[in-house]
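Students often ask why we bother encoding 3D structure as a string. The short answer is that it lets us treat folding as translation between two languages. Here is a chain of 369 residues written in the first language.
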Amino acid sequence: MPALNSPLLRRSIAALAALPLLTLAACGYGSDAKSNETAKVAAGAKKIDGLGSVKIGYFPNVTHGTALVGREQGLFQKELGATKAEYATFNAGPSEIEALNSGSIDIGWIGPSPAINGYTKSDGKSLKIIGGSASGGVKLVVDPKKITSLKDVKGKKIATPQLGNTQDVAFLNWAAEQGWKVDPQSGKGDVTVVRSDNKVTPDAFKAGSIDGAWVPEPTASKLVAEGGKVLLDESSLWPGHKFVITNIIVRQAFLKEHPKAVEAVLKASVEANKWINANPERAKQAANKQLADDSGKALPADVLDPAWKSVQFTDDPLAATLDTESAHAVKAGLLKQPDLKGIYDLTILNKVLKAEGESPVDAAGLGTS
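And here it is in the second language, the structure alphabet:
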């Protein structure tokens, strides 16, 4: 997400001081660096572009289901041939952007905010968004004993994952549309915004220290499992009920030097999304298996089932909605007007889609000319 000015930055948020503040992607669960792939390489397979490996990053999170399924099913390794697919998992957008910038990863699944962050901070030189992955999966969940209608949210304490992250911006924008005033930095106003890590939000909700939360999956479903009620699904606020929650990004240098490797990863991503949409139950279990491998714990059915159902997996990056999210951040006072022209390069993705007989996707005027 686009960044904030230095007064908003806090050293307690990893890497934030080095990035513009709209920072975190949809929160992830899992360790910060994991890299063990056991998918078999087909006999006679060759290395792509002579590369020994391609390093792929993602969050162990339901909204990164394309990456989870692609890894668990061995799809990335299949397309990369004798070039090894190596993986690293992250809990926060800034950490993944840092890894991308340093070359620790080449390609990553990430939320819109850190993608915008990384692009604007580098003056458009660090990354490109090369594909879509997921839409939706964000809800306002409340304590039904304290909040029974949308108007009841006024005066209550509502958690968001972090100052300036995608959900934080979305909630601030929604609150403003209700006519409520909230200071974006302190979170104080007609509604109190409590910035809380997704991993601790369920405990805070159970303890009663917050009255609700505007959060991504699976946190939203975890709150429901604790007795919460879904008051609003963010998808209902968007045209066609679609908005970007996860994109695929790549280091620009890697894209320039190894387009065949990028194409292989995008082929696997498209294949993963096709399989997910054709086999939702099997895909859900495959994703949960990978989540267990990454985080040490699978999601229980009462969390996994509704969480998985609320996410739409798509190759379309939904570029127009990223532009709108950026505008919301500017309106909230969390971001100076960014120049996003050129943040997308969908050339290879559209090549892959054409080969699959699928329609091309659009960059909404923000693509590489």
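Translate back mentally: The radius of gyration is 19 Å. Keep this in mind for the problem set.
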